[in-house]
Amino acid sequence: MRAALVQVEQEGPVSEIARAVDADTGYSRSDLGNAQRFVALYGDRVRYCYEQSAWLVSNGKRWIRDRTGEVERLAKKSVVAMAHEAANMTPAERDDFLAFALSSQDRRRLDALIALARSEEGIAIETADLDRDPMLLNVLNGTVDLRTGTLRPHDPRDLITKLAPVAFDPTARRELWIKTIDRTMGNDQEVIGFLQRSIGYAATGDISEHAIFILYGKGRNGKSTFLNTILAILGDYATTIDASLLMSKAQDDHPTGLTDLEGRRFVPTAEAEDGRRFDEALVKKLTGGERIKARRMRQDFYEFMPSHKVFLAVNHKPRIKGTDEGIWSRIKLIPFNAFIPKEERIKDLDKQLAAEAPGILAWIVQGCVEWQRIGLAEPKSIEDATNSYRDEMDNIGDFLRDRCLVPEQSHLKEVAKVKASELYGAYVGWCKGTGTEPVASRAFGSEMERRGFELKKSNSQAWRLGLTLNQDVDPDPVAYEIP
């Protein structure tokens, strides 16, 4: 028999078990040999992820989970093709080999082939290997490198699973899109530029800006059209979430809601209810860049790195209880002040904008390149709107203005004081009277310190210095005495 048995060992400190290899084919006549033959033929088209317990197949544009038995079809093709390997064998060798090839078509051997192929080098991957490059955007006609704004051919080695269902064409028309944005934003080119950079940033998997974008307006102002258009263009890179996920609740929600964010980049929300308060701890977590813990229904917890940027469309601004930079540095309030009267509304605007999708995609990519050049570069109007929002939410500031006296002269500041417990009690009572929610005593104290009102202990009593309650103030400030 011409078929020889060749013993193969892996070099290194630990040798693998030697395996017999058919000298005519290079593969052992075994399930392992069949698995290696399969990988040699189709290894560039299949991957297996143990974390997901799933096969993935490449369709030429991206990797998708195998839900139609593609891996099994390829496995069957690989064993059927074994007959061609017998062409140069002697009759006796051919008969022996063909008998093995025929038995390889049995269900048991096919299952063994597929099971053994999972762990072959180059086939097994981790979830983290998928969509690893945050600056690649996969589109219909290739992959856009967002670092440069250039298009290159699809490459299975990128292990991309997502697709924006639009062709990239930097020269494509987008006149209606530009006209719509100009009308929506009152032709404010600084704000429009900020919007473009924000959406360009949102098209990446980068989360370095640690921001949440709030689009505020009373309705019929174009913010939903704007967000829905971007949502459709970014396809798999985008998803919507319910605004309630971001709002404070009496009890924690099931963490399954967070799983929708995994791997997404652009995440607009539906309208938030009037008067709801942000879950500030969650907003900080979702914009902070740390790993997020979540779990699917009836499954164990797992963690993922964030890539999402949330765009919250509201008619009423969410209440924000905190006064610290930890929350306010993340807020980007974008006013949508226009009102589009009925006679100016364009029929089937969404369909007409869809026809400009390649041009709008080019606008997004252009915004991304510009964001990398100068950052978000908030215009003063955005900063002013956000600061005004912060002032609206500052019930501590309102309390100080309404119930306290803060002397302007330095020598009077030194003698003005109030018991810390009385000050906080007055604040809580004021909040109840005004229908606002007080912050916790520790947060109140921290905010007093931040505003320059120091805490001093004297005779086992804590005093807040530099202010006093109105009812405790002598009408003549010169009459203050040092306690």
TrEMBL record:
Q: Where is the SF3 helicase domain?
A: 190-349
GO MF, one annotated term: helicase activity
Keyword Kinase in record: no
Q: Which UniProt keywords apply?
A: ATP-binding, Helicase, Hydrolase, Nucleotide-binding
Which InterPro entries does the record associate with it? DNA_primase/NTPase_C (IPR004968), Helicase_put_C_phage/plasmid (IPR006500), Helicase_SF3_DNA-vir (IPR014015), NrS-1_pol-like_helicase (IPR045455), ORF904-like_C (IPR051620), P-loop_NTPase (IPR027417), Phage/plasmid_primase_P4_C (IPR014818)
Indicate yes or no for the key word Nucleotide-binding.
yes
For this protein, the record's PANTHER family field holds: ATP BINDING PROTEIN-RELATED, SF3 HELICASE DOMAIN-CONTAINING PROTEIN
What is the name attached to this protein's record?
A: Phage/plasmid primase, P4 family
